Amino acid sequence: MVVGGHRGMGMNAVGAPPEARVGAVRERENTLLSFGRAAAHAAVAFVEFDVQVTKDGCPIIFHDDFILTQEIGGVNEKRVTDLLLEEFLSYGPQKNSRKISKPLLRRNKDGRILNWSAKEDDSLCTLQEVFEHVSPRLGFNIELKFDDDIIYERSQLDRALQAVLQVVFQYASNRPIFFSTFHPDAARIMRKLQSSYPVLFLTEGGTAQYNDSRRNSLDEAIRVCLEYDLHGLVSEVRGVFRSPSAVLRAKESNLALLTYGQLNNVWEAVYIQYLMGVNGVIVDLVEEISNAVSDFSKPVLNQSMLGSGVNLVGAKHQAFSEQQLGFLLRLIPELIQQPH
């Protein structure tokens, strides 16, 4: 099992209390600082980050569809892909201290607009800068980001994907890379445009519903992968726990299976996936979970070793019998569908 850092060392959740385990990470997400910190952990195989393309054709790193700032008269909100590169880089901290920066705001899940702050800030960056400044040993999961509320023409998808590929081909060298996207047509096109790097289909795994039926279940995601000759899928972890047989179907279809989601910040949930045969997890608690996954492969202690006072980190990870694992897999789908 491999571990990937979600947007670097973890996503920022505006409004999260300081004591929150997830969302209160020190570093601003999707920045060179966050990627560099993730690269310092040997157990982290890759970082996941979101790539969009500016109006003048530059691939940049940013998750949200819209970028918000405070101006005289109120909040100014613009679509990221409608910005020129220079304007995009004017938001947040500036590399050049003489430049005036625009404060970054973010819309919370409940609709409130809050100041987007991080304990350790960093400037926004481009895809080229990430290749140039992040350790070449760290793999990249490049998420090709598109707005769910837009119906894209083929020419729009081509333009964005070609811009990303131009940077990748020029700067990737021997770095491990794979692409992922929630947009099934973007995945299909990227697979046809190149054969150097794997393309994976991102799915909510049935935990959310969309007008495009290809996005509404793990069965559909596997079908999309096989029809478009993709290399695998990245599912919301709850989708895998609700349909554990999907792991076997993916394996039988020679597809890689990775997961993402809040449950991946709980090592016990990650351990169950390890036993199920999931290939990788994308996490926010990067140091904690990567260390736990490293422990999974260590020898399980027997009783005589425990009695002798030997203390190994891997001792907490006990192997389940097939009967116990079967019980857990039957129980988990019921638990995660209970109202909270």
Automatic annotation (TrEMBL):
- Name the keywords, alphabetized: Glycerol metabolism, Hydrolase
Determine if Hydrolase is one of this entry's keywords: yes
**InterPro entries in alphabetical order:** GDPD, GP_PDE_dom, PLC-like_Pdiesterase_TIM-brl
Q: What is its EC number?
A: 3.1.4.46
What region holds the GP-PDE domain? 1-293
Catalytic activity, per the record?
Answer: a sn-glycero-3-phosphodiester + H2O = an alcohol + sn-glycerol 3-phosphate + H(+)
Q: Name one GO molecular function term.
A: glycerophosphodiester phosphodiesterase activity
Instruction: List, in alphabetical order, the GO biological process terms annotated in this UniProt record.
Output: glycerol metabolic process; glycerophospholipid catabolic process
**Is Hydrolase given among the entry's keywords?**
yes
Query: Sorted alphabetically, which PROSITE patterns does this protein's record hold?
Result: GP_PDE (PS51704)
Q: Which superkingdom heads the taxonomic lineage of this protein's source?
A: Eukaryota
A Pfam family hit: GDPD
Q: Which PANTHER family match?
A: GLYCEROPHOSPHODIESTER PHOSPHODIESTERASE, GLYCEROPHOSPHORYL DIESTER PHOSPHODIESTERASE
**Similarity remark:** Belongs to the glycerophosphoryl diester phosphodiesterase family.
- State the name under which the record lists this protein: glycerophosphodiester phosphodiesterase
Q: Which organism is it from?
A: Oryza brachyantha (malo sina)
Instruction: Supply the source organism's classification.
Output: Eukaryota, Viridiplantae, Streptophyta, Embryophyta, Tracheophyta
